[in-house]
Amino acid sequence: MLTINKALELIPFLKEQGLRITPQRIQILQNILDAGHPTVEDLSKMMPGISIGTLYNNVKLFVKLGILNELPYGNGISRYEFYQSNHYHVICQSCGDIVDFAFPNLKEVEQIAANLTKFQISSHIMEVYGLCKTCQNDSSR
Ligand SMILES: [Zn+2]
Ligand SMILES: [Zn+2]
Predict the structure, then answer these.
(1) All residues with CB under 5 Å from ion ligand 2
(2) What is the Cα–Cα distance from 128 to 93, expressed in whole angstroms?
(3) 39-68: string of b/e by CB count within 10 Å (b at 16+)?
(4) What is the DSSP code (8-state) at residue 8?
(5) I need a surface site. Which of 86, 107, 109, 141 has the fewest CB within 10 A?
(6) How far, in Å, is the centroid of ligand 2 from the Cα of 98?
């Protein structure tokens, strides 16, 4: 799994993608790293000085460049994370917390889908749902 702790480590990669590096962009990326799987709302709370429109534009640009991955699940509000393969998400049904776990990409599913349906397969999404540790404790009270 990709392990990047400092957004500054991404600068060579960002330059490769043709992105203009600004302190604001580095700040946004650092906050996404720190928060895990934030929504744009979450980011806005972390950076009240940056307008939500600017945050949206940057996040959309990062997604387009393949730097961020958009996670469309949950309550219809997208969450964002750094693009990395070979991992899936477990999502808490109670509080919405998302945690990564490493697992090899299920290419076999795509292969079987392609064989059986003759579709040209581009991707798949697998989500695992349950109750996180905090919510388990809450409900047993
Ligand atoms: Zn929870
Ligand atoms: Zn993730």
Answers:
(1) 81, 100
(2) 10
(3) bbebbbebbeebeeeebeebbeebeeeebb
(4) G
(5) 141
(6) 7
Give the ligand whose atoms come closest to the C-alpha of residue 71.
2
- For ligand 2, the distance from its centroid to the CA atom of residue 118, given in whole angstroms, is 30
The pTM score is 0.74
Name residues whose C-beta falls within 8 Å of residue 71's C-beta, 6 or more positions apart in sequence. 37, 78, 79, 80, 81, 89, 98
Integer-rounded Cα radius of gyration of the chain: 17
pLDDT digits (tens, 9 = 90+) for 125-141: 888 999 999 999 986 65
How far does Cα 3 stand from its chain's mean position? 14
Structure tokens at 124: 């798949």
- What's the pLDDT tens digit per position in 37-55? 999 999 999 999 999 999 9
Cβ 86 vs Cβ 104: under 8 Å: yes
